[in-house]
Amino acid sequence: LQASSLTSTADRFALPPLLVLIAADLHTPLAAVAAVASSYFLAYGVMQPVWGVVSDRIGRVRVMRVALLGGAVAGLGSAVAPNLVVLQLTRVLAGACFAALQPATLVYVGDVWPAAERQRALSDVLAAASLGIGGATAGAGLLADAAGWRVVPAVTGAAGAMLWVALRR
To answer: pLDDT for 66-88, tens place per residue?
Structure first.
């Protein structure tokens, strides 16, 4: 649960430090790449209530698995995107999928942990989310500078795939 929360927030906060590098690599205006980020954030925000309804119907763990698989596919697709259109589509899919993880993990903890232990479990999930925010904000630019911007969505995509496998068990 903590790793899912971390991956979701890392994917979300990794995009802004990459905007200039993406624009240079894809030979597109920075404003067009910023629109990709805006689309990601819009999809993330719009999909959270949708995922909430879906998780009430099919279950929190199933929603997390679907979201992790979608996020993995989108992250890996973003890493190989040949142009801005494909990057925008894959980033929107990533935002829409990763939007499910933070609320689903928090509600899952509320559903499963006994009241006496719930606060600690919630704080662990939120600490992982904070680590994802800080790590992505600082680390995405450093990683992209060292290995290229495409490595960053590939890392969150690979993390999503590994977590999907772990949640299947």
So the answer is: 999 999 999 999 999 999 999 99
- Complete DSSP assignment for 28-83: --HHHHHHHHHHHHHHHHHHHHHHHHHHHHH-HHHHHHHHHHHHHHHHHHHHT--S
Instruction: Give yes or no for a contact between 124 and 2, defined as CB atoms under 8 angstroms apart.
Output: yes
> How buried is residue 60: exposed, middle or buried, by Cβ count under 10 Å (0-12/13-18/19+)?
buried
Whether this model's pTM surpasses 0.90 = yes
Which burial class, exposed, middle or buried, applies to 153 when counting CB atoms under 10 A from its CB (0-12, 13-18, 19+)? buried
Q: Binning pLDDT at 50, 70 and 90, where does residue 168 land?
A: confident
CA 37, 42, 45, 49 dihedral sign is negative
* Cβ burial, residue 49 (10 Å; 0-12/13-18/19+): exposed
Helix (H) or strand (E) holding 134: helix 115-147
